[in-house]
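Quick one, probably user error.
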């Protein structure tokens, strides 16, 4: 059973070192979050699985890593300077600011709101008597467009001409390198370029833990295809992304596809399908797949003056701008989804409840914990010997824990989702036959709670898989 409330998860994340509130000792900075020792392992593993599936295991994919700061003309070409805005409304009573469309969406539904023009939002909030989520009164300003790009300035002189933006998406870093990659890698269509990196959006209403923040990481692919070949490849991408999430443990019942209506489509897209996850507050976007046509290459060709056409390697007279299918993942949102889905509370026979993070073993931040049964010095020394052997002979992340009773330590490992715990006891030392024969250890499985006794040699083989 996934977590039913966000509070349960937020508290576990803080208690166990997954995610901490940002700048906490200074009273925090609203809606910023820092990944702790376990959070960073989990996040790195999500990124690694993604890269493995979509870059290493596909002959048609290339990776790259572009700069966050880009020539400001990029954002004029992409449409972000003109279009990347949300409708902002102010509460005249308490001065809090909200997204007008989101306030209406909650009452009227997405479909009703997606067709609204900016000028209709203020009157509609009044007509529907939508209360302010902060103070409960209903006294709104007109809606105005609020551009979500973060501005900063480059160099030592502040002022006009030096203003640049923090990128609001990673995609444009790929488009501006399209020509470089075609020239250096000589790929045949269809092929894709993948990138993982930070993006920044000055969201009006961030919240729900790491679901919506102003600084976040994306995992994006731009997949270039011959015009007219999009339909089949679009469906293939939809399927492989769905399989990636479910293959790593997201239950099919927790996911759904959502096809955008014509009115909901962004200015660059002719078809968009989102994968949504059942978050504790309802379904929300986890991933978006869009058919961007040749919008981006067309725009960058126009604004940069560079020829971005692709030449068919079999027929040099065939030159065209490829069309683009864009699978776009939120990395932090994916991590949040894996955390929520893994969260499980299980009743035990003794009447207690154990909390266990049932991560897919490929994502678990710690692979194996080595636990000496007691604090006796020579037992700890034996367990440390095993610890060194495991880290030298495998590529696993290994935890070594001596504090607290063995029951408490198992519970701690369950709470961080460690798939295997190894107990070193007096049997291992050859001092107690009842616990086991010399040089054998107990290996405990996180999910089944089954315990198995095996020699150290067998253990290393098992851990290597
Ligand atoms: P939303 O409708 O939730 O604002 P979006 O449609 O603007 O999302 P895209 O521009 O398609 O999002 O970005 C691709 C992915 O990046 C999203 O599916 C989501 O997982 C992630 N993402 C977008 N905005 C944020 C944010 N503010 N915080 C965390 N992740 C985000």
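Nope, works fine. Designed sequence:
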């Amino acid at each position: 059973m996934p977590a039913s409330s966000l509070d349960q998860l937020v508290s576990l994340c803080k208690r166990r070192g997954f995610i901490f509130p940002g700048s906490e000792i200074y009273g925090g900075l609203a809606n910023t979050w820092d990944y702790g020792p376990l959070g960073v392992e989990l996040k790195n593993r999500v990124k690694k699985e993604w890269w493995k599936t979509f870059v290493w295991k596909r002959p048609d994919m290339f990776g790259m890593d572009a700069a966050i700061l880009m020539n400001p003309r990029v954002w004029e070409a992409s449409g972000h300077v003109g279009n990347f805005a949300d409708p902002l409304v102010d509460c005249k009573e308490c001065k809090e600011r909200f997204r007008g469309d989101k306030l209406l969406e909650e009452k009227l539904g997405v479909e009703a709101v997606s067709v609204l023009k900016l000028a209709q939002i203020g009157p509609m909030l009044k007509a529907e008597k939508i209360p302010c989520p902060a103070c409960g009164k209903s006294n709104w300003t007109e809606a105005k467009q609020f551009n979500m790009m973060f501005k900063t300035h480059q160099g030592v002189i502040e002022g006009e001409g030096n203003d640049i933006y923090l990128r609001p998406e990673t995609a444009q870093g790929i488009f501006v390198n399209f020509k470089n990659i075609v020239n250096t890698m000589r790929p045949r269509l269809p092929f894709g370029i993948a990138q993982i990196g930070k993006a920044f959006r000055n969201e009006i209403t961030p919240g729900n833990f790491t679901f919506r923040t102003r600084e976040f990481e994306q995992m994006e692919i731009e997949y270039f295809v011959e015009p007219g070949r999009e339909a089949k490849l679009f469906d293939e991408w939809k399927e492989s992304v769905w399989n990636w999430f479910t293959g790593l443990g997201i239950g099919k019942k927790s996911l759904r596809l959502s096809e955008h209506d014509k009115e909901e489509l962004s200015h660059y897209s002719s078809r968009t399908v989102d994968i949504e996850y059942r978050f504790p507050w309802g379904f929300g976007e986890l991933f978006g797949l869009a058919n961007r046509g040749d919008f981006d290459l067309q725009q960058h060709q126009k604004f940069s003056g560079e020829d971005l056409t692709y030449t068919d390697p079999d027929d040099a007279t065939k030159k065209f701008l490829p069309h683009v299918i864009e699978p776009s993942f939120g990395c932090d949102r994916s991590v949040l989804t894996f955390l929520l889905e893994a969260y499980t509370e299980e009743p035990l026979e003794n009447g207690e409840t154990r909390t266990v993070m049932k991560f897919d073993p490929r994502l678990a931040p710690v692979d194996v914990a080595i636990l000496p049964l007691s604090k006796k010095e020579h037992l700890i020394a034996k367990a440390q010997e095993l610890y060194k052997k495991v880290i030298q002979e495998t590529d696993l992340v290994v935890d070594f824990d001596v504090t607290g009773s063995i029951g408490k330590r198992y519970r701690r490992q369950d709470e961080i989702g460690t798939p295997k715990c190894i107990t070193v006891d007096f049997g291992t030392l050859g001092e107690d036959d009842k616990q086991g024969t010399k040089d054998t250890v107990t290996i405990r499985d996180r999910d089944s709670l089954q315990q198995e006794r095996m020699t150290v040699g067998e253990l290393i083989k098992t851990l290597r898989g």
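The chain has a mean pLDDT of 94.
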